[in-house]
Amino acid sequence: MTSNSRAVVTLPTDTSILITREFDAPRHLVYRAWTTPELIERWWSGDRGKVVRVEVDLRVGGAWRYVMVANGGFQVAFHGEYREIVPDERLVTTEVFEGMPEAAALTTLTLAEHDGRTTLTVLVEHSERAHRDAHIDSGMEGGMQEAMDHLEQVARSLA
Prior knowledge:
By secondary structure, this protein is an alpha+beta fold. The radius of gyration is 15 Å and the shape is globular. The chain has helices spanning 27-35, 37-43, 129-137, 140-157, and strands spanning 8-10, 16-23, 49-56, 63-70, 75-86, 90-97, 105-114, 117-126. The protein has a single domain (8-157), classed as 2-Layer Sandwich (Alpha-D-Glucose-1,6-Bisphosphate, Chain A, domain 4), CATH 3.30.530. The model has no long low-confidence stretch (mean pLDDT 94).
């Protein structure tokens, strides 16, 4: 499934990435798809592989970890800690790509709804420009676009 919507990626500062995407689904369903392990398994890898592990301890101080086996047979894993949770509105987490643990980031997800459609924004804040640039240069945008398409599909399926 491909969506008519695409995420817009901008670089508002030397150390940050801002991702914005509109979904044809109410925000409580987008939030549910974003935070529920069996739903995350359905969208997080996009078309790039198979999710093999999702751990979510959805509480302030709780940990999360997602692991996929990419189509090339290698493993990709991310983990972090929940710092702030406002259900259906905002999540602040740390995010660590396990292949580059020194480039940890702080990620703020915000969901805003208007007329049954949800605007998702993700602000990724790295500690230095080199880490931000490595994140961008990793090819993350293609996989992220696919994952967002699947996320919308999952959220809409919950209605």
